[in-house]
Amino acid sequence: MLKKVFGYGFLTIAAIVSIFPFLWMIISATNKSVDVTKGKLLPGSHLVENLTNLLNTVDLIPALVNSAKISIITTVLGMLIASLAGYGFEIFQSKAKDFLFNFLLLSMMIPFAALMVPLFRMFGTISQTTPMIGIDTFSAVILPTVTTAFLIFFFRQSTKMFPKDILEAGRIDGLTELGVFFRIYIPTMKTTYAAAAIITFMASWNSYLWPLVVLQSPENQTIPLLISVLGSSYSPDFGVIMTAIVIATLPAALIFFIMQKHFVAGMMGSVK
Amino acid sequence: MIPAKATPHIQTGKSTRGHRLKNTIIGWSFVTVATVLICLFYFYPMVQAFIMSLQSGRGTNLTFVGFENYARLLKDPVFLTTVKNTVVYLIIQVPLMIILALFISVLLNDKALKCKGFFRTAIFLPCVTSLVAYSVIFKYLFGQDGLVNIMLLKLSFISEPIQWLTDPFWAKITIIIAITWRWTGYNMIFYLSALQNIDHSIYEAAKIDGASPIQTFFKITIPMLKPIILFTSITSTIGTLQLFDEVMNITVGGPGNATMTISQYIYNLSFKYTPDFGYAATVSYAIVILIVIFSIIQFKVAGDKNA
């Protein structure tokens, strides 16, 4: 009995601590800045006012569009590249490919901070000849981050459980290898793709350091950059900032709630 | 590591050798794009960084100086402070979070528990926030007149506000609290899935043998979860060694350099102060070396090559 009370008590506290900053964020978005500073914990009626102020002071919509563009392209391309590779490593397994696979996994150990400076110089050099994909472009944000060894690993792990007979059937029916991949593998692996999509989209939507380094003009700003600038202002309007954070958090939170099952299933699949 | 398996063979009338060759080409072409991109954007920059670390100068005007930057590293007080800060976060925050996550997942794994879904979703919720967004929220919550101080004062836990962001000691605590809040649920999911794979009869047997819950936890649960604990502790270590977003947005590395991390120092060296790309690259190699050292330690502590 005591054990039970303790268990529920502990979990309740953990749940409250986890949820509280969210509640505070949402409540504060509906209150005036002065009330937020006073520690008001009840919903107010200033949401519309905060939203209008937010839209008038910063370029929220363009930043949302920029973030959406970058995240969607990264997610689609990233999944395609990683699943092709994960499939290739597992279905066409060979000693040499296993060696290459393990070598690619080493890239997971490389911290981004170590890549930032050489990547910045690399894109600086590219800028001189082809400014289209150089510094201050979305391509420069997407290219270095679109392929991750983790995602390749994730797809390879999931492919291990894939019923290989179906592929054989497809080949006998006269499909090319790419045909087998696009017409049989992708439709069968929907769950894996869903999980990979969530992981990639969230990481891209929330990424901060590399966009901070490589995106320089204000019109290319992404949501995390905008939030960071708002958050570091000297006379912050708390209501307005909290409204911005709610809007920035909403897409990732919605996707998570809609696809929660896939997400958890995907994470588990990656460890097995 | 990976069990050997036969490559799929296609049975048609053509010669096997020609087929094998075709199969090899097809197999390699599937992995080409990913391999090229990872080499181009991970391994090539690492080589570049090493070459840069042997050079010094302002901006793009670099001259070769050999290992001078590495010597400078060991005498640089700011660098040593950032290493110290990062290691402090690491040795306090990672174990704290892992124990907390383990404990929560064991409680959640109880078959008789009600509202399991609610607790799990609630505790996982922090993971959907962007690092920047939650950092800004924590910065305000832990401000001088922030909500945390207001509540602690009201409840009379403290008599004057704690300097959460401006005192070197408390600023570190704030960062640790923030990271723990963000990542405990994430690690919990891994443990929870691993726990569900443990055969329940083991626990039944332990119960019959008269093992207490604490004994069961240390003698059965922990050993069974060892591979996943190792996995999460290595990923958490790599994450903590690269810590940037939180510190940049909660304390900007202050007060003084009391919370600055190595990543932030690299950023400052390259983009905030007069750019010294050569030295910044040297500092970035320090993180790589730290990651290797800590990963080896963790493998050694776990003491299992197959983990």
What does this structure look like?
- The complex is a heterodimer of chains A (272) and B (307).
- Helix content of chain A is 76%, strand content 0%.
- Chain A has 272 residues and is mainly α.
- Chain A folds into 2 domains: 1-45; 59-271, MetI-like (MetI-like fold).
- The longest helix of chain A has 32 residues, at 60-91.
- Chain A starts with a helix and ends with a helix.
- The mean pLDDT of chain A is 86.
- With 307 residues, chain B is mostly helical.
- Chain B is built from 13 helices and 2 strands.
- Chain B is globular, with a radius of gyration of 25 Å.
- The chains are: A mainly alpha (272), B mainly alpha (307).
- At the A-B interface, helix 1, helix 4, helix 5, helix 6 and helix 9 of A face helix 1, helix 3, helix 4, helix 5 and helix 6 of B.
Q: What's the structural domain tally of chain A?
A: 2
- Number of helices in the DSSP assignment of chain A: 15
Quaternary state of this entry equals: heterodimer
Q: Count of DSSP E strands of chain A?
A: 0
What is the percentage of strand-forming residues of chain A? under 5%
CATH topology of the largest domain in chain B: MetI-like fold
Shape of chain B: globular
Which descriptors apply to this entry?
heterodimer, A: 272 residues, mainly alpha, MetI-like fold, 2 domains, 0% strand, globular, B: 307 residues, two-stranded antiparallel sheet, 13 helices, disordered N terminus
Summarize the structure.
With 272 residues, chain A is mainly alpha-helical. Chain A has helices at 2-29, 33-38, 47-57, 60-91, 95-105, 112-129, 138-142, 149-159, 164-172, 177-188, 190-206, 209-214, 223-231, 238-258, 260-271. Chain A has 2 domains: 1-45; 59-271, MetI-like fold (Orthogonal Bundle).
Topology (SSEs and partners):
The complex is a heterodimer of chains A (272) and B (307).
Chain A: H1 2-29, H2 33-38, H3 47-57, H4 60-91, H5 95-105, H6 112-129, H7 138-142, H8 149-159, H9 164-172, H10 177-188, H11 190-206, H12 209-214, H13 223-231, H14 238-258, H15 260-271
Chain B: H1 16-53, E1 55-56, E2 63-64, H2 68-75, H3 77-108, H4 116-124, H5 131-141, H6 147-154, H7 168-196, H8 200-208, H9 213-224, H10 226-241, H11 245-250, H12 262-272, H13 277-302
Antiparallel strand pairs in B: 1-2
Helix pairs in contact in B: 1-13, 3-7, 3-10, 10-13, 12-13
